[in-house]
Amino acid sequence: MRVNTETDNFGPNGKNNPGGSGPDRSRRFDFLLKALDRTPISVFYQTQDLIFRWAENLPDGIAEEQVLGRLDGDFLPPLAAQRLVDAKLSAIETGVPQRFEVPITLEEEVRWFDTWIDPDINESNGVQGVFTTMLEVTEQKRHEVQLRNLLREVSHRSKNLLAIILSLATQTARNSTSIGGFIGDFSGRLQAIARAQDLVTDRDWQGASLNDLVIKQVALFRSEVPVAVRISGRDRVISPSAAIYVGLAIHELAAHASRTGAWRSGPIAISIGEAANDDSSETVILEWKAKAAAQNASFNGLSKRFLESVVPIAVDGTGSIYDGGNDISYRLSIGSAHIG
After folding, report:
1. Domain ends where: 136, 162, 188?
2. Buried (b) or exposed (e) across 128-161, using 16+ Cβ within 10 A?
3. Domain housing 9
4. Closest to 246 in 3D by CA, of 183, 201, 302, 313
5. Quick one: CA dihedral 18, 20, 23, 29, positive or negative?
6. Strand 282-291's sheet: what is its strand order?
7. Least confident segment among 46-55, 113-122, 284-293, 303-312
8. CA-to-CA distance for 134 and 43, rounded, in angstroms?
9. pTM of the predicted structure, to 2 decimals
10. 73 to each of 1, 80, 103, 212, 293, how far by Cα in Å?
11. How many distinct structural domains can be found in the chain?
């Protein structure tokens, strides 16, 4: 959209460019314009009175007829126009180039432009106008915002995770009778949290599937005995915070199965179901059924507290253990707020 070709011979600082002439120069100039069209770069020229004389590769949302022969305030929002005008007047007055970022609302969308204002200095060292180069960086700005939000989320979740680990260490220590027992129990629970966290990270912090949680937690015990688990029902994705606690619950169940010989008594059955709530929301039900080989198959105090209190509260649900001699079952409901 070239107009007013009297400025075509300007090089840097408005002086003639000796780099070519005639057809060769024209071909190069045409190629430069074609290359400019492939970029998010716009170039403008204004005289001392800040009237736009020509413009190349206008941003989407600005038409040529809105610009040529007009002022910044005629087609730009007031705040953006004032920011640009102040910088251009400063460049004209001082002869010093200006650079800054400016947000401009175009077609009801805020877009960002990295902006250069260069004075057009004539052979007498007087400023006869300004060149403005604007590089749209809207996508880069959006990525920066997403990255900042992600870092805040990571920081928030890391603090929560550290709080969970600290509480876990404290409760495990209170219920341990020896240093070796504490190390074994705490290490297993820490690994359970780490594995759940890996699943959450693999899904870009969007949660974890119940099937994956079961498989990951049960894998911790494969080195001890062959592990037989049957999972039925539709797999569901739960929230990141719920994944940590549900992973811990599955670990407690798997550790109990290891202690009581349930792995050798036949496959453990795990089912995933749903239940409708009065408000039309949905609750996910996770059930674990095992047959213990040991006669005393009761859960210890801390495991029982985790399964019936700590985990259910964290997932806005309920948890109950059924201990019928050798038959052990656990039922955990997960609130709708934690279901993906």
Report:
1. 136
2. ebbbbbbebbbeebeeeeeeeeeeeeeeebeeeb
3. 5-136
4. 313
5. negative
6. 229-233, 268-276, 282-291, 327-334, 319-324
7. 284-293
8. 6
9. 0.66
10. 21, 9, 15, 58, 83
11. 2
Model confidence pLDDT, tens digit, residues 34-81 = 888 888 999 999 999 999 999 999 999 999 999 999 999 999 999 999
Of 57, 63, 131, the closest CA to residue 95 belongs to 131
| Same domain, residue pair 131 and 149 | no
Question: To 10 degrees, the CA torsion angle through 169, 173, 179, 181?
Answer: -90
Cα angle for residues 40, 45, 51 (degrees, 5° grid): 125
Choose one of 121, 136, 151: the last residue of a domain. 136
For 229: left if phi > 0, alpha if psi spans -120 to 50, otherwise beta; the answer is beta
Give the tokens for residue 199.
Answer: 């699943």
For the stretch 163-208, pLDDT in tens is 999 999 999 999 898 999 899 999 999 999 999 999 998 998 889 9
Q: Domain with 117 in it: what CATH number?
A: 3.30.450.20
311 in the same domain as 238: yes
Say yes or no: 289 and 160 in one domain.
Answer: yes
The dihedral built from the CA positions of residue 310, 315, 317 and 318, taken in this order, carries a sign that is negative
- Are 235 and 329 part of one and the same domain? yes
